[in-house]
Amino acid sequence: MNSEALICEICGQEARGSHYGAMACRACAAFFRRTGTSKHIKPCSRKKQCKFFKNGFFTCKFCRLQKCFTVGMSSETFQFDRDAYKVREMVQLDRRIPMTMDIFLGRSNFIIFCAPQSPESSEKFKKNFIDVQFLLDEALTVLHQGSETPLIARNSLGKMAFGFRKIQNEDQIFENLHKIPEFGKTQTLAQWEYYILKMTKWLTYFDDFQKLEQSLQIKMIQGIWSIWKKLEQLAAIAMCIRRKLSEETIRKMKNGTLLCNWNQMKIDMSWCSKYSLEELKFFMEINTEIRLDSLTREMIQLEPSDIELSFMLSQLCFHYVGKRFQGEILRISEKFQEILADDLHDYYVNEMKKSNYGSRMAQMMRINNQIQKDIIRNREKTDLAILFDVFDLEFSHPEMFMDL
Fold it and tell me: Which PROSITE patterns does the record match to this protein (predicted)?
């Protein structure tokens, strides 16, 4: 190759071989390596009419870079992260940071101290068996007794609203939780019994539900009692706040404001797990306090009537149980929802004389949808708890406790 060919295609000076796809001198090659992928090159101030080489240097970096691209230089062959000092820093950083216990053991830090079961330790890790058949037997007794007769109401939803008022007026054994010194296994089972029978009694006021086969009734009760409890408790908390605080006070309160706590009450979870109360809060809802949140605030603002709350409870429960069990229960649930939706329309139009109730309906459905989202989020945590064997419990009817 003659000397005339070794000319830099960018600046016209003596070239030193092919660099990044073009014949270039070392200066232009180094320039392109620095700026080829840079996003901070200033645009040309002379409308791209610069003299490329003046008094021994380039007057415009932008035009010099454009000429590099024009003659065929490319950044595809650039190599990054080859600096030796970075490798040394990474090695030294790895040496400084010790391996965490969960990485070392290959187990989540929530279950590090949960010893695996073995034939030798099977008795030690034997699970507590909870037989809830007696609850279902009591629920069947309530269903057989039915609601009071005769009972006059405008429609099915009106009858359910009457039933809801009645069960709310009965003794509420968990109304004064702060007076209970300890909350353990006995109190938990009593609370489950209370809500299962309370919800079952409410369902006896729904004639279409009473017409179902006994097996379907029990299966639906098993699926919806814990969901019914969530909305019923939310409504009870909102009602209590409205009674004790003025509207102006509630409006000024920020979300997260502490409303009530049971710090003085001892919560015993040793009967269901070897983990502490604080550790178990990751896997399940354990309410030791009540704080104002967006869902509670929305329920306070809605202030539903007994008719509206009965519709919300039935819509939430029947929609959930239909999606969960599918098949015949799904068809029954959809029919129930249709009947009660027609009754709600009749309530608004004929009793309340309100034909435009869309915004209120939307607010009710927002609350129900948020509860369903919370259920799905908690279900993921429950699945983790089952996977890692967090709870030392076995139920005779485990499907009843999937969404506690």
Answer: NR_LBD, NUCLEAR_REC_DBD_1, NUCLEAR_REC_DBD_2
Q: Which two tokens stand for residue 71?
A: 């003659």
Q: How far is CA 235 from CA 19, 348, 381, in A?
A: 74, 21, 25
Does residue 79 fall inside a structural domain?
Answer: no
Note whether 107 and 135 are same-domain residues: no
Interhelix angle 214-244/294-302, nearest 10 degrees:
90
Residue with tokens 């909102």: 238
Nearest to 239 by CA among 175, 289, 286: 175
Tell me the per-residue pLDDT of 199-231, one tens digit each, with 9 for 90 and over. Answer: 999 999 999 999 999 999 999 999 999 999 999
Count of domains forming the chain: 3
Tell me whether residue 342 is in a domain.
yes
First-to-final CA distance of the chain = 83
Is the domain of 323 the same as that of 358? Answer: yes
Looking at the fold, whether 101 and 186 belong to one and the same domain comes out as: no
Secondary structure of residue 6 in the 3-state scheme: coil
Least reliable range by pLDDT among 312-316, 333-337, 379-383: 379-383
- Domain boundaries, position 116: 84-121
Residue 402 in tokens: 């999937």
Same domain, 100 and 242: no
Q: Which of 54-58, 224-228, 261-265 has the highest mean pLDDT?
A: 224-228
Do residue 249 and residue 277 come from a single domain?
yes
C-beta contacts of 110-114 below 8 A and 24+ residues apart: 110/275, 110/279, 110/282, 110/283, 110/388, 110/390, 111/388, 111/389, 111/390, 114/274, 114/275, 114/388, 114/389, 114/390
Query: Are residue 36 and residue 134 in the same domain, yes or no?
Result: no
Digit-coded pLDDT (tens) for 87-113: 555 555 555 666 666 665 566 666 655
pTM: 0.67
Question: What would the two tokens of residue 347 be?
Answer: 């309530």
